[in-house]
Design goal:
The protein is built from 13 helices and 15 strands. The mean pLDDT is about 95. Helix 2 runs antiparallel to helix 3 and helix 12 packs across helix 13. By secondary structure, the protein is an alpha/beta fold. The structure holds 2-phosphoglycolic acid (PGA) and zinc ion.
Length: about 425
């Protein structure tokens, strides 16, 4: 019998992401199906992420796909994700995908998985998860107000103010709660933020001229109002993205919007106070990416609030192992293009779950209009997905989860913050 999942061709083209930057899109054809996928890009990147593209950029990536990747992948079985991904590592031959580019590898890896799924006529999440009995629909953790590297001068130093609704009966309701908070917050900001033009940052979150804590107050108020109206509990979180305002030379955090600097201890106390005062459910990258010890201290003190590593772990097995050993966090961001392949990301998510950490599937600030991340979140067993609230490229992921809920919702209960 012919194996319909054998790869027949791997083609690439250059497309644009939501920031208008060039990125790579890959199409993989098998005997019996096809898959298409593209890679996103970060702006507040972790220092230890893999390289996105070869030294010659996206054009070199496309050329390499034609000259070295396609000849090696044609004939492989797309059902064997591990082999496809190992082959990508072999072709690259470096520790950090610096020859091929992690984004190149990721687009191929994902397109190949999609091609296998389409050949079998199953959804991508089922193809990747294999065993589907314990899967859940993730809760959406949505960015409603943003600053840092995703917005202009005058916006808060903290990169993302996030909300997540507890006590919802469906994914749809949980997403609607985030949409409602985003809307309500827009109105509040018209009253509270001087010169507010309804401008948004790279991830579709409001980007007002407001201090860090004033922004937190506004988000908390919007979350409270929506909680009361919808009969759910909308909790608030932050992605501090602390590396982006850490001055490694002077060893201080530079709060530009407040025109002040805080030493490591002061900054930590400040974050802890915000966690307690605003009963935050989630804080990502509260400290700079090298400070595992500081993360561990905060995790110990901030009981009841998820402390999550993004730049800290960069979805890397080794970094995550160190974090687990030091009890540096209770959650980890899973961004497949930080490591380059679907298998590497899946392995990181598994390691996290096995060690009691919450894996969270995440978009990047520069996204494409695909919904694949929704499937990865389900397949990886992530109780949370961080993929924004508004903007076509963000809504694409949410809409895909609505489709999954409609088609498979009976078998996929909604996750909770505690799972
Ligand atoms: P990035 O930021 O995609 O711009 O790197 C997202 C994040 O820090 O979570
Ligand atoms: Zn982050």
């Amino acid at each position: 019998m012919t194996t319909l999942t054998i790869i027949q061709s791997v083609k690439a083209r250059i497309i644009f992401n939501s920031r208008g930057e060039e990125t790579v899109e890959v199409e993989v054809k098998t005997l019996g199906g096809s898959g298409r996928a593209s890679a996103p890009a970060g702006k507040s990147k972790g220092k230890y992420e893999v390289a996105y593209f070869p030294p010659g950029g996206v054009r070199e990536a496309v050329e390499k796909l034609r000259s070295t990747v396609e000849p090696r992948l044609v004939g492989l079985d797309a059902d064997n994700q591990k082999l496809v991904d190992e082959t990508l590592h072999e072709i690259d031959g470096t520790e950090n995908f610096s020859r091929l580019g992690g984004n190149t590898a990721y687009a191929v890896s994902l397109a190949s998985a999609q091609a296998a799924a389409s050949t079998h006529g199953v959804p991508l999440f089922a193809q990747l998860a294999g065993e589907t009995s314990n899967l859940r629909l993730p809760l959406p953790l949505g960015n409603v107000l943003g600053g840092g590297k995703h917005a202009g001068k005058g916006a808060p130093d903290f990169q993302e103010y996030l909300t997540v609704a507890e006590g919802c009966g469906s994914f749809r309701q949980a997403y609607e709660a985030n949409l409602q908070v985003h809307r309500r917050l827009g109105k509040l900001l018209e009253e509270r933020a001087p010169g507010f033009t309804r401008g948004k940052g790279d991830e579709g979150a409001w980007a007002p001229r407001l201090g860090n804590e004033e922004a937190l107050e506004a988000v908390s108020k919007a979350a409270e109002e929506v909680s009361g109206e919808m009969g759910v509990k909308v909790r608030v979180g932050l992605d501090v993205a602390a590396s982006s305002f850490w001055d490694s030379r002077s060893k201080v955090y530079r709060y530009e919007s407040e025109r002040r600097t805080l030493g490591r201890e002061e900054h930590m106390d400040h974050v802890l106070r915000l966690i307690q005062e605003y009963r935050l459910a989630y804080v990502e990258d509260p400290l700079e990416e090298e400070d595992f010890q500081g993360f561990a201290e905060l995790t110990e003190k901030a009981k009841g609030c998820l402390i999550c590593g993004d730049d800290l772990f960069v979805t890397s097995r080794e970094k995550l192992e160190e974090g687990i050993r030091l009890k540096a966090a209770t959650a980890v961001i899973i961004k497949p293009n930080q490591v380059g392949t679907v298998s590497d990301a899946l392995e990181a998510a598994k390691l996290a779950r096995g060690s009691g950490l919450v894996p969270i599937a995440s978009h990047r600030s520069g996204e494409t209009c695909e919904g694949h991340l929704a499937h990865l979140a389900v397949a990886f067993g992530c109780p949370l997905i961080k993929a924004g609230v508004l903007g076509g490229e963000r809504v694409a992921k949410m809409n895909e989860l609505l489709r999954i809920e409609e088609n498979y919702g009976r078998a996929l209960p909604l996750a909770s913050l505690k799972t």
